Structures are given as C-alpha cells and as structure tokens.
Amino acid sequence: MHGGEPLLAGPARLERVARELEQALDPGVKLDLRVHTNGVMLSDAFCRVFDAANIKVGVSIDGDRAANDRHRRYANGRSSYDRVISAIELLRGKYPHLYAGLLCTIDIRNDPIKVYEALLELEPPRVDFLLPHATWDSPPMRPHHGDTAYADWLIAIHDRWVADGRPLSIRLFDSITWNARGQSGGTEALGLAPSDLIVIETDGSYEQVDSLKVAYDGAPAMGGLHVDSHSLDEAMGHPGVAARRGGVSALCADCRACPIVASCGGGLYTHRHRTGTGFANPSVYCSDLRKLIPHVEAATRRRHVFPVAAFDLLARLNAGPGEVEALRGPQQSIARSMLAAAGRHEGGVALDLLARLNHAHRAVTDPVLEYPYVRSWAARMTGRVPAGQTVISGHLAAVAAVSAVLAVADAAVTVPVTDGYVYLPTLGRMRVGDGTSAVIKTTGGVFTIESGGRRFDQNDVNWEPVRTLRAPGITLLFDDIDPHRGCYSVPARERLTPSDWEIWQKTFEAAWSLLQEKDPGQAAAIRAGLRVITPIAGEPGRFGVARHAYGAVALPECVDPETLARLLAGGFASGQFAALRDMIDFSRNARAADELQDCYARLVTASFLEPGAEGAELLSLLQIMEGWAEDTFSGVGRRFLEGMKSAALTRLAVLDI
Hey, where are the domains in the chain? Predict the structure, then answer.
C-alpha cells in the first residue's frame, strides 16, 4: 500500500482493504501486506490496525534534520522531522515486529556520513538508498558534467558501513553482492531478474511501476486494463511489462557489451528513457553505476573466501581442524571490526592504548580482542543485539587493561565499577565495593586496582578468577563471571560454588572421554575451535549458542556425561553453522535458515544416541529435509542441504536401516 501517502485513506479503510484481500485468497496462500509512509500521520490507531493484519511498515526519511528538511517540509515551511522521528520511535518501542525499515532518497548536497549515522541511530532492520528519479531528458543534479557524484556519495557510506561491520542490511549494497554471486538482487533497480511488479490504482486500473511517471505523461498506463475485467495474468502479459522482463537481450548495445551488465542490468528501467530512443539507452546514472558496482564487488571479494571443499566437509559432518580454522578467520575479522566500531563510540585513552598494544603484541592481545564476550559487549554497544540487555559503558578500558597485563606492558587506565565489581575479560573480577570507577595499573604482567581509597591485587580475597576446564588434550575457559555472557536465550548461571565447580570438572572429563570415543573427528574440531563454556540455568537437554559469541557454548548444569557430550557436540556444530551464515545466504527466509541450523545440530548429535533411537532420529531428519520446497533455500543452501542428506543416508547405511 503505497502513495502518495497511503495513510490519508484512514485506519478504517486500510483495515477493510487488508480484510478483503485476506478473504479473497485461497486457503494456504500467504498475503504479505506492507505499507510505506512518510510517517507524519502514523499513530497508535494505525499501528493497531497494522498489528492485527500483520502489515509491515516502512518509513521515508532522508537522514538527519538538515537532510530531511531539504525536501520534507509542510506547506507552511514547518519541519516534519520531529513528527517522523516520533512515528519511527512508536514502531521501535511498541511495534518493533512491524518495523520494516527506512527509505532514503539521495541528495548529494547532504553529508553522506551524517545521513548514514542518523539512519543507523534509528535501529532499522534495513535501509535502502534510492537514486532520485531522472531521465536523459531531465537529468539528475550534478556539480560537474560527467562526474560520479552519486557513486562517490554512496561509496562513502559503503566504506563506513563495511568498517562498522555491516551493522544492518542496506538493500542497494546487498543487491550488488547478491547479483555478483549469481543470485537475484531483490530489486528491479539492479540486475537482470525479470520485474514482477504491477500497480493497482485506487480506481482499480492496472498500471506499470509508478516511477515511469517521470519519463513522460501516461508512461505507466496499460491501455484500460482493470481489475473488474482483466486478470493479473493478463496484466502481466502487457507489452510494457514484457519489456521489463526481457533480460540482457532487451538492453541497448552499450549495456549488452558492458562487463558489469549482470550486476547492473541497465539500472532502473525508468532511468533509461530519452525522447527519440525510448528506453533503449543506458541508465542516466551509468557513470555512477560503473564506479559503484565494482567498488562494492571488490570489497566483497576482499572478505574472507570460504573454500568449497571445507563447505562440503562441514555439510557432510566430516569437518576437522582445518575447516574450523577456515571459519575462524572471518569470525576474527567480524569481531575486530565490531570492536573498532565500539571503540570509535567510546574513544579516549583506552582506545589509543589498545591500538598501540595490538600493533606491538598482537599474538597476546588478539585472544582478548576476539574473546566471545568482548564481541558480545561490542555487539550491544553498536546496537546489533536487542535493547534491554546489560551493557557496560567504558568496558573498552578493561579490555585494554587485560591486554596490557598479557603484553607485560606498563599502563594505567580508569575502568567502570559495575554492581560493586571491576570486570577483566578472560581473567576474572574484583569485588571493590561502592563506587563508579576504579584505576587499574599494570606493571610486569601483574595488575593492581585502586578504588575508594583501597588497593587490590590478584592475591586479594576479593579476586575471583575465570576458571579453567581441563581434560586430556583440551583446556577451555569456564566463564560464569563475564557481565556480557548473558547473550543466550536462557539465563546464564551466576558464579558457581566450589562444590558445584568440582562436579562440572568431573562431568566434563567423563564427557570429553565419551566424545572422543563416539566422534573423534568432532572432538578434534571442538579442540580447534571452542574456547569458552558458560553454564546456563535452562532445560537440561538444551544448549545455547549466540551469533555474537563465536567460540563459546552455553551448557546446562546437573547433566550426566553422556548428555553433556551430546550437547557439547551439538552446540559447537550449531555455532559453526551460525558462523557460516555470516558469510553465506542460505535463504532469504531467516526462519528457514534457523530451521536448517537446528536440523544440522540434531544431525551431529544423532550419533550420540542408542542405535535404535539414532535411526529414528535420522529418518525424522530426512523427512524434514525432504519436506522443504525447492525454492526454500538459495543454490548454496541447497548444496549444504544435499550434503546433510548424504551424511544422514551414509549413517543409516552403517546402521543397516
């Protein structure tokens, strides 16, 4: 439901439209309703209607106040910015499940970084940047003839977005990446995928995509086709629609010969129009696209490339230390880019100290910077996890202090005191009592903490170190201290008593022995890739994995060695799959990707069941895998799925089932 401004129809009419569309569809047909608005009329009354009908809401906003007010003022000149921000805050706060994203039309007079930062602060699930509609007859504003001002504007945002660790989806950049991989870019503005858009006007007439109105008067018209007398199939057969579905053969000769035609696709159809030659022209933004697309593709190529052989071994459950190491590289880069973004947010002495230490002592500081719960903190600081979870402002100073200890460097930094504790990631915590800050001094690889007129060191009774789990061939941190370990779907346990800790240690030793016996390949992979176990208070049969805590698995307490071995294997496997999802688009449907991840973990843990139960589990998993429709997953996702099926069938053959 688009516009103009669709909210002018009022809540009652929009509710009736949604209801009648839903009632008109056959059972089993899913209706995906969305509304796009400038936000000035959005209210709780509208949102209640949208909530009841599951209508997702997109909002147009062009950046910060200065950028937005350049074009979006009321007729009397008054700014609309505050009203639009209030509408977005209503979605974010009360109806986050309806918040579809933000749409920003580019104006190269606006500062691109200020625009990006303003949109990022609104925590949208996605953003799209639109080139302003223009044709060869009415070209876009440019400071200089033939320049690439629009590409330069977008490249500034792209490079900052990459440096920030790609904190949200930006459809334009994602589309270029998907097109480069041979997948559909998901937008008619780029690529060669056929257009599937039809507009139904408020009077029931069919029209082509409404951007064509800028080409010439009557350009979107479809010769009187109307919902009362013509089907959608008939409308899709209209010559104007067919012209937008012709692929590369429908492009002009210059476009067909262009090396980036597969990614560009000639740009938006509307932007090709010129009087005399119609749409048989390159885009009026051709120079910008020829600069922007290779830049984005090059940045994609600079990202870690995961070997196909390693991908297939993971799918077939045959991955070893080499494949785990191939996954760790990209995860380390993600962790560091997120920490850099959090560091820019905090700044100060701690950031400078950390940069110097990491440059000179990377071998000892890298494990701290890439620690799962340091990344978990950075994810919260940069808004990558839901609001409401604990986040300690100033925690970067504690990361720097730990790095100084490990680098045997002299330093003094001020760190926060939280609930009476100073937290040092990977090392432990010191109970210092009341206060909001403390000073940590490091000398010769040891530290002292000064707070409230008192001085503490590592021999103090108030010091609680991070414990270590040990078994033959493996040593893991057991972190029941870090304040940012609460990143799982179930609560993390508080500090264990010495007796509870002894039970954990004995159970882990027995579980590790069983795991090496049952699945030595998986044990070798875990040894190479797992770093931290955190106890959780959830159900005894469930593990916890967090996307922004790679290298950590959360496990329940009071389980027997057999269960602990199974959960450890399943949790680690699920974490590896989650790491793959940071690089690979398994499916456009996040729920389907979640289900594939769950299926993968179950497949790994099936071998820990008794033969009869294992066979039943494998047959159940095969039934699930066979039940997914062909188009549920991307080509890469289907390849992984086929590897999983092969692994299940191989195991069933061993069981003679």
Answer: 311-465
3-state secondary structure of 320: coil
**Banded pLDDT at 139 (limits 50, 70, 90):** very high
Q: Residue 36's closest CA among 168, 173, 130, 107?
A: 130
Per DSSP, the three-state class of 129 is: strand
For 366-408, give the secondary structure using H, E and C.
HHHHCCHHHHHHHHHHCCCCCCCCCCCCCHHHHHHHHHHHHCC
Under the banding of pLDDT at 50, 70 and 90, the label for residue 387 is very low
CA-CA distance, 353 to 412, in Å (whole number)?
10
Q: Which residues pair with 102 in a beta bridge?
A: 59, 127
Q: What pLDDT score was predicted for residue 381?
A: 82
Q: How many residues are there in the chain?
A: 657
Q: How many CB atoms lie within 10 A of CB 479?
A: 24
Q: State the chain's mean pLDDT as an integer.
A: 89
| Distances from the Cα of 9 to the Cα of 16, 42, 45, 200, angstroms | 11, 12, 13, 15
Report which secondary-structure segment, H or E, holds 60.
Answer: strand 56-60
* Beta carbons within 8 Å of 529's beta carbon, 6+ residues apart: 321, 324, 325, 327, 328, 551, 572, 575, 576
| 95/97 Cα distance (integer angstroms) | 5
The Cα diameter of the chain in Å comes to 86
Q: Burial, 502: exposed, middle or buried (Cβ in 10 Å; 0-12, 13-18, 19+)?
A: exposed
DSSP code string of 615-653: HHHHHHHHHHHHHS-GGGS-HHHHHHHHHHHHHHHHHHH
608 contacts 569 by C-beta, under 8 angstroms: yes
What's the average model confidence in pLDDT over 426-454?
Answer: 94
CB contact at 8 A, 470 and 478: no
Contacts of 225-233 with C-beta under 8 Å, sequence gap 24+, read 227/200, 228/204, 230/206, 232/198
Handedness of CA 578, 580, 586, 589 (dihedral sign): positive
H/E element, 507: helix 498-518
Alpha carbons 125 and 383: distance in angstroms, whole number:
11
Comparing CA positions, the residue from 578, 550, 390 lying closest to residue 486 is 390
Structure tokens at 262: 């597969």
CA–CA dist 185, 176 (Å, integer): 7
- Scanning the structure block, which residue is given the tokens 């009632």? 23
